[in-house]
Design brief:
Tyrosyl-Transfer RNA Synthetase; three-stranded mixed β-sheet; three-stranded parallel β-sheet; 6 strands; about 10% strand
Length: about 350
């Protein structure tokens, strides 16, 4: 199980979210969800469905968002997130996210957003989409609002997301410098999760179409993972290889026993076994690991009303905190609502 490096005080708030853009996969489970489950045992956690963020790269046709929201939350719950321990809600059900993002956008220098490495990378990777919008350039401001609204002290992220947290810290620091101490500067909680390779050897990602979905049929998993990329030097069965150059071996490290790993290493370097022979050992573990998740998920997905109720209850809890934060923000900005009852 992955865990976050660095400890926070026991009463700290941890905030994280995920965009509902399709089926969750093995990378989400190993790299994010199991870390969230561990964090909810130690901190007060707010986990939100970032549905507004879908529009930043797909404003022309945010298809199936409603269904994706329920499917994603079913996976969260099946993985072990507990609405009794964590606040689970949908971003768009708490309009204060948008209000704080608007106000933070007023003080965020344009250069900060243009230097964001993800902004440059996604413009290259998603070249077929129109990303020349204010929403896409400014989505880190909305992301900052998502965190700062709940006074999040920690945000669980991978190393590639650290620049986003640093930008959030800079925005909070600038706000506090201009108007007085109001917003908490969050800390990046770096997870120790192993790299999860996709079927083609690149990082597992929906955008690459190289994933193992959490609700996949076992036969499909076995067939697709059997074709997973391996050490390119093993073009023939008799060619020796090196596990450190094999994408599939990253999953062996996650799933296999020390004895199995030693067997794979010996067989690979001597060409004593074929690539499919070693992959079958790892695939067996993956299928067994996902079996209880798939069963729990199917039960949860069959009751969408229950998922909606969890999201509604979570939104009520999140809104109470969000309204209190916005009362503070309006006050330091001098926008107290005269004549309007405050909550």
């Amino acid at each position: 199980m992955s865990e976050a490096r660095g400890e926070l005080p026991a009463d700290s708030v941890v905030v994280s979210g995920m965009r509902p853009t399709g089926r969750l996969h093995l990378g989400h489970l190993l790299g994010t969800l199991r870390n969230w489950v561990a964090l909810q045992e130690r901190y007060r956690c707010f986990f939100f469905v970032a549905d507004w963020h879908v529009l930043t790269t797909d404003y022309e046709g945010p298809r199936d968002v409603e269904a994706n929201v329920r499917d994603m939350v079913a996976d969260w719950l099946a993985a072990g997130l507990d609405p009794e321990r964590s606040v689970i809600f949908r971003q768009s059900d708490v309009p204060e996210h948008a209000e704080l993002a608007l106000l933070l956008g007023m003080i965020t220098p344009l250069g900060w957003l243009e230097r964001n490495p993800t902004y440059k990378e996604q413009r290259e990777q998603l070249a077929g989409r129109d990303l020349s919008t204010f929403g896409f350039l400014g989505y880190p401001v909305l992301q900052a609002a998502d965190i700062l609204l709940y006074h999040g002290a920690g945000v669980p992220v991978g190393i590639d997301q650290v620049p986003h947290i640093e930008l959030t810290r800079e925005i909070a620091r600038r706000f506090n410098h201009l108007y007085g101490p109001t917003l908490v500067e969050p800390k990046a909680l770096l997870s120790e999760a192993a790299r999860v390779p996709g079927l083609d050897g690149r990082k597992m990602s929906k955008s690459y179409g190289n994933t193992v979905a959490l609700d996949e049929d076992p036969a499909v998993i076995e067939r697709n993972m059997g074709k997973m990329a391996t050490d390119p030097r093993r073009a023939r069965r008799t060619d020796p290889g090196d596990p450190k150059d094999c994408p599939a071996f990253d999953l062996h490290r996650v799933y296999c026993t020390p004895a199995e790993i030693d067997w794979v290493r010996q067989g690979c370097t001597t060409a004593g076994i074929g690539c499919l022979d070693c992959k079958k050992v790892m695939i067996r573990h993956v299928v067994a690991d996902l079996a209880p998740h798939r069963e729990r998920r199917a039960q949860l997905a069959a009751d969408p009303a229950a998922i909606d109720a969890i999201l509604a209850a979570g939104a009520e809890q999140a809104a109470r905190v969000a309204r209190a934060t916005m009362a503070q923000v309006r006050d330091v900005l001098g926008f107290g609502r005269v004549g309007t009852p405050q909550e």
